[in-house]
Amino acid sequence: MKVSIFDVAKKSGMSVVTVSRVLNGAQSVREKNRQKVLDAIKELDYRPNAAARSLARGKTGIIGLIVTTLQDAFFDAIVKELNEVLALHGYFLAVSISEGSGSDGNHYLIQEDRVDGLILLSPLEEDSYIMELKRRNIPYVLIDNQKPENDAFSVTIDNFKGGYAATKHLLDLGHTSIAHLCGNEMFRSTRERRNGFLQALQEEGITPFEMVQGDFEIEFGYEACWKWVRDGNLPTAVFAGDDNIALGVINALMEARISIPEQVAIVGYDDQNIASQFRPHLTTVRQPADRIGLAAADMLLKRIDGTMKRASSLKIDPELIVRESTIKSKLSSSE
Questions:
Q1: Residues 6 or more apart from 176 whose CB is under 8 A from it?
Q2: Torsion of CA 99, 101, 102, 104, to 10 degrees
Q3: Of the candidates 57, 65, 184, 213, which lies 20 to 30 Å from 48 by C-alpha distance?
Q4: pLDDT < 70 positions in the chain
Q5: pLDDT, position 333
Q6: For residue 160, which of 125, 118, 184, 189 has the smallest C-alpha distance?
């Protein structure tokens, strides 16, 4: 038989009101009485119903965030910004790492009205989540989602524009033998960056040196570049799908004693912290994590308070940051 708040009140000798105050973290309860309630909760193994508590208070004060990984400097920066902005509005951020494979939307953060709103950061299988969030009437915002048809209430980066800018920069430097190492096809960003790359080349009547697909990992960039080295057939420039891939390329070229950017120029994507610390400093396309986090938090808060009722989406422009991996200079156009 399920233990209720009335059982806890009876066991502790306290009123239901006092038990409720303890559960909600009220500071007005005397420490002696608080301990009696906590002891009763432990002894009875009482687990408060999140939905009932939410109904009583009107809100939980918690925003959920589901992300596929935190082993990514770009994601980490977005989470940091979200946490700071939401804290200023009195919300706690509850972060859950979910690989997304096989997800059916029945995530514990969505169950029993545990959160006032939810943010999905680069979800792999967003449809099931969205369906369940709509069913439960939980406000949500997507960041870097995979399907354009789900762009309502989303914050995305114009990855096509980023891929185009990176490639145009290399073309403007006189490169005509340009390779592209891209990430996994499941990611929308992979496809859009590649399309931007191809568009820039097509405008100049140039075909790619090679396009290789892999993972957003240093190892992928390293192995792909070493193949070119072994074959004795190198491009003069590489547009890497992210900074990790670019760093792998740089490692391989440095081991092979191939000079950067004189023999091979490299552009990455994301502008992770290491991009401006690694030697040579990496030319890359910056995704403004602070603007993304702020925009997503603002959109979700407006959905929660009811001031945003119609579907809305925001696409943020990336920024090309030129450094030493494409132009040999101690000065860069932006650091």
A1: 204, 206, 236
A2: 50
A3: 65
A4: 1, 24-27, 48-58, 99-106, 112, 329-335
A5: 40
A6: 189
> pLDDT tens digits for 219-275?
999 999 999 999 999 999 999 999 999 999 999 999 999 999 999 999 999 998 888
Q: Residues 264, 238: contact at Cβ < 8 Å?
A: yes
Integer Rg of the chain from CA: 25
286 touches 157 (CB < 8 A): no
Task: Please state the CATH superfamily assignment of the domain spanning residues 159-287 in this structure.
Answer: Response regulator (3.40.50.2300)
Q: Please enumerate in sequence order all residues whose Cβ is within 8 A of that of 59, keeping only pairs 6 or more positions apart, or say none.
A: 116, 304
The domain limits of the chain are: 5-48, 62-157+289-316, 159-287
Largest CA distance in the chain: 83
The C-alpha atoms of residue 152 and residue 275 are separated, in whole angstroms, by 33
Q: What would the pLDDT profile of 148-181 be if each residue is shown by its tens digit?
A: 999 999 999 999 999 999 999 999 999 999 999 9
Name 5's Cβ contacts closer than 8 Å, sequence gap at least 6: 16, 19, 20, 23, 46, 48
CATH number of 62-157+289-316: 3.40.50.2300
Domains 62-157+289-316 and 159-287 share a fold: yes
Give 44-49 contacts, CB < 8 A, sequence gap 24+: 44/3, 44/7, 44/8, 44/11, 45/3, 46/3, 46/4, 46/5, 46/7, 46/8, 47/3, 48/5, 48/23, 49/112
CATH architecture of 5-48: Orthogonal Bundle (1.10)
pLDDT number for residue 58: 59
Closest among 84, 158, 147 to 120, alpha carbons compared: 147
Report the alpha-carbon distance of residue 21 to residue 281 in Å, rounded. 55
